[in-house]
TrEMBL record:
It comes from Pseudobutyrivibrio ruminis DSM 9787. One of its GO terms (molecular function) is magnesium ion binding. It holds the Pfam family Hydrolase_3. GO terms for cellular component: cytosol. Transmembrane segments: none annotated. This is Haloacid dehalogenase-like hydrolase. SUPFAM superfamilies: HAD-like. NCBIfam families: Cof-subfamily, HAD-SF-IIB.
Length: 271
C-alpha cells in the first residue's frame, strides 16, 4: 500500500517526554514530506501551541497541515488557509463564564498568539501555558474579549470535584448543544458538538483527493482512537493507553524512542 498522508498526534506521540521533537523524528518526517507525503499534526492543542512544532518541521516550506483542537480547526501551513473552523456560538460565552465564576474556577480560551484568561496566576492556566509553550494574556471580561476572535474551545480549570459541579451545570444549561468533557481531571473542555480527529481528517482528505486507506494515523491517547479507526493503517506508541493499543495495526517504539520515525521508515518508501 502506498501511503500518501500521515496524521501525527503530538503529546505522547511525536513529542518526547521533554515535549521536544527529536532530531531523528524531524529528519524522517522531512524526508517523508519531500517524498510527497502530506504531514498532518493532529492534536487537542490550540493553534499557537502547534504552530511552533510545525515551524520546527519546516511545514510552511515542505507543506503540511495543522489539525488543532482535536479537529475544530484545520490550517494549511504553506498558504495559511483555514480549511475548517468550528466555533462556539457567541450567545454561550457569558453563560460559560457565569457558571465558572459561580463555582470560583478560572476560565481560559485562545487568540492567535496564545492564552487569554481571567486569572493568569492560576496554577492550571500556567500549566496550559507551559504545556503549549505559549504566553498568557490577562483580560477582565473574557466573554467580550473572545467575541473579537470567536474561539473553538473554552477551558475551565481547577479542582476536579469542583469542576464536576461546573460540568453538571453546563450540561443542564446547554442540554447537549455543546460538548462538555474532561481532557484531564483539572481541565474541563467546552467545544462545539461533533468535533473529533476522524471527522476533520475526512474533510481534509476530501479536499486533497486522498482516500482514507492511504492514511497512516499515529497516536497514544483515547482521543486518538477515532482517527486510528478511520485510517488505513493505525499506529500506537509503546507508551499508549491499553485501549488505544487495541485499535492499532502496529505498535511502534515509545515516544522517547523515536517511534514515529520507526513507523514512517517501516511503512513509507522514502526517496
Amino acid at each position: 500500500m502506498k501511503y500518501k498522508a500521515i496524521a501525527l498526534d503530538l503529546d505522547g506521540t511525536l513529542l518526547n517526554s521533554k515535549k521536544e521533537v527529536s532530531n531523528k523524528n524531524k529528519e524522517i518526517i522531512m524526508k517523508a514530506a519531500k517524498a510527497g507525503v502530506k504531514i498532518i499534526l493532529a492534536s487537542g492543542r490550540p493553534v499557537p501551541g502547534i504552530k511552533k512544532i510545525a515551524k520546527q518541521l519546516h511545514l510552511e516550506e515542505v507543506g503540511g497541515y495543522i489539525l488543532a483542537y482535536n479537529g475544530g480547526m484545520i490550517i494549511d501551513c504553506k498558504t495559511g488557509e483555514v480549511v475548517r473552523r468550528e466555533t462556539i456560538p457567541e450567545k454561550y460565552y457569558t453563560d460559560i463564564l457565569r457558571c465558572a465564576n459561580k463555582f470560583n474556577v478560572a476560565t481560559l480560551t485562545y487568540d492567535s498568539e496564545g492564552i487569554i484568561s481571567n486569572d493568569e496566576n492560576n496554577q492550571y492556566v500556567q500549566l496550559e501555558s507551559k504545556i503549549n509553550n505559549i504566553p498568557i494574556r490577562q483580560v477582565f471580561h473574557l466573554d467580550e474579549e473572545a467575541q473579537l476572535d470567536p474561539p473553538v474551545k473554552f477551558l475551565c480549570v481547577g479542582d476536579h470535584k469542583v469542576l464536576r459541579n461546573v460540568e453538571a451545570k453546563l450540561n443542564e444549561k446547554f442540554n447537549g448543544t455543546v460538548n462538555v468533557f474532561f481532557s484531564e481531571p483539572f481541565f474541563l473542555e467546552i467545544m462545539p458538538q461533533g468535533i473529533e480527529k476522524a471527522s476533520s481528517l475526512e474533510i481534509l482528505l476530501g479536499s486533497l483527493g486522498i482516500d482514507r486507506k492511504h492514511l497512516i494515523a499515529c497516536g497514544d491517547g483515547f482521543n486518538d482512537i477515532p482517527m486510528m479507526r478511520y485510517a488505513g493503517l493505525s499506529v500506537a506508541m509503546a507508551n499508549a493507553q491499553d485501549e488505544t493499543k487495541e485499535w492499532a495495526d502496529y505498535i511502534a517504539p515509545s515516544n522517547d524512542e523515536d517511534g514515529v520515525a520507526v513507523a514512517i521508515e517501516k511503512f513509507i518508501e522514502l526517496n
